[in-house]
Amino acid sequence: MNVRRRRTAEESRSLILEVAARRLREHGMDGLNITGVAEEAGISHATLIHHFGSSGGMREALANKMTLDLMADLVSALGEKVPPRELISNVFDALAAGGHAKLIAWRAVDGEGDPSQYDLAAVTEMFERLIATSAEVLNPENQEELRQVIYLVAIAAIGHGLAGATLARVLGMSNEEVHAFPEWLNERLS
Fold this sequence. Notes:
2 domains; Arc Repressor Mutant, subunit A; 77% helix; mainly alpha; globular; 0% strand
């Protein structure tokens, strides 16, 4: 006899957010419809509503989780005593991968980019670690230069993650040139 184990509420919420994040990466905002998320998670529409209250509640929980994941990926990308060239490449990869670029674009377009919606203490702590580690590794002349470098790398990575393939085709760039872009940028910043 096959006995099915019930998920805890936390396990169910985690599964739903994992599916929603994957659907956001693969389908953009259209992938975040409750019916599609519930179906792919193997739960009912009512169960999803039970856990999040509404589609807006699910989207807000997803945005918060992905924001914290983004910050954790950025802090991880910094590593300890990483050479400057590797640091910039790691930050670029963290921002361009994992749906983070789509998250940032979604929050900006959706008008939900208000930092008060996030776990502000956790985000602030991670950004402070990002700035401190970057300052240690990059040894900038001043904090303004450091913020400008972080901003440039972030904007380039987000654009690369959102529209890089389309823009590369328009410009006639090969896949090799596109994949080499982070290193090219890194050389210019070093």
